[in-house]
Amino acid sequence: AGDGPAGPGLTLHKFDLEKRKFDKVLDGVGAFEVSQNGEKMLYRQGPQWIIAPTMTPPKPGEGILKVGDMEVAVEPKAEWQQMYHEIWRSERDFFYDPGAHGLDLNAVEKQYEPYVAAVAHRSDLTYLFQEVLNQLTVGHMFIFGGDQPRPNFVSGGLLGADYKLENGRYRFAKVYNGENWNPQLRAPLTQPGVNVKPGDYLLAVNGRDVRANESVYKFFESTAGKQVVIRVGPNADGSASREVTVVPVASEGGLRNLDWIEGNRRKVDQMSGGKLAYVYVPNTGGSGYASFNRYFFSQTQKDGALIDERFNSGGALADYIVEYLNRSLLNYISFRDGRDIPTPLGAIYGPKAMLINEMAGSGGDALPWYFRKMKIGPLIGKRTWGGLVASFPAPQLMDGGFVTAPDAAIFGLNGQWEVENTGVGPDVEVEFDPAAWRQGRDPQLDKAVEVLLSEIKKNPRAPSNRPAYPNYHNGQGGKN
Length: 480
Description:
480 residues, alpha+beta, six-stranded antiparallel β-sheet, five-stranded parallel β-sheet, 9 helices, 19% strand, globular, disordered N terminus
C-alpha cells in the first residue's frame, strides 16, 4: 500500500521490547527504511521523502528531502562489470536446477567476461546477457529494464476505425464498437451523439482539411484523451456534413481484439446453428479468468463448447478452468413449470475442443496440457510455445534492470518434467493460413467447429428423461 490512487498508505508503529509498549508513529506511510544503526528512518508520505530520528516523533516539516535537486553520478562501465557478475550469482542461487541443465556457469562466466570491456551502451550489455543466458535453454529467461535513455513520447490519437481511400478522401471502412460502458474499451466513434458509420468520409480535423495525399494519423498527433472536433459526412465534397466532438484513444488494441473475439463467437454460433459456445481465454491471469467466466457461464445452455486459447500469454496454472470444463452431470432438478435444471449448474456437458497455436505459452501451455490430461476433448491447431518453468524475478540489478532465473518447474506423476522446450502438440494439426485469413476465413476455427458438430451428431444430448410422478396412494411410491 502507498499514497495515491492505490490507497492512503500504511500506519507505522513501534514496539518497545523493554517496556512492552506499542505506539503509533506515523500515518499515511508509502515506504519505510531504517538506517543500519537504527537511529534514523527514511520514509515517504505522499510525494515527500523525509529523514527523521527513530526514537522521537518527527516534527512537522522536519527532514524533508529536496529530491528534485538530487543528482547521482555513476560510472557505467563499473556498473556493467558488477551486473555481469551479478546475473551469474542469480542463476547459481535461484535457477530451479542446481546443475543448470548441465551448463558450467563458472566456465561460461569466465568465457564471456572479456566482452564486457567492449560494452559501450546498456543495450550492448542486454545483448550480451541474451547471448550468454540463452545457453541455459529455458523458456522464461527474460531480460529487461535497466538504465536506458527514455526520450519524450508523444501519444498519437486513434479513432478506432479502418480507412479506405476514395475520391481523394479518407472514408471509414469499419468502425469498432468496443464497449462504451467499459473504460478500457471506449470506442470514440460510437459515443452518444457521434455515431459515425462505415461509409462516412473524414473531411476535417480541428478545422484542418483532410486529404488522401497526407497521412491521416498526422492530424491526431498528441490528441489521445483530448477532445477533437472532426467533420464527417456522406459525400467527398463535404455536402451534408456535420461536426462532432470525439476523444481519441491512445491504442486500438483492445477494440480490435474484442472485435476479433466477438466475430469468432458469432461465426461459431452461426456455423453450428446455435449449438456451440465460443469461449476465448487470452491469458491465465485475472483478465483471462474474467474472459472465461464471461463467455462460459453465459452459454451453459449450449450443446458443446469451443475453447480458444490461441495467443494465450500465460499467468497462473489454470486448473480452475479445466475443472469447470470437466464437470459431470449428476442429476436434474424438476419444477412444476419450466425446464429441468441440471446439477451442477454452470457447466456445458456436451463435447468440447480447444484451439491452440505457437503463440500460446506458459500458462497457455499448461491449460491445453491439463485439458489433454483430463481427456476433455481434442486439441486443434499448432503446437504451443513450450515454456513451463515459471520465472519470478531474481533480485533487481543495480541500474533497475532484471534478469530472471526460472525457478518453478512442472513435473508429472510419472516422474518426468513436462512441456518445457516441447510444448503441447495438437490432436488435429491445422495451419493458420494467411491467405485464407485475408479472405475472411479461419481454417483452425472452421476445423474445430466441424469436429465438434460431428461429435454432437454421433452423441446427441440426451433428454432429461423426467420420470412419471409418483402416486403414493395406489402403492406406486418411488424407489431409490
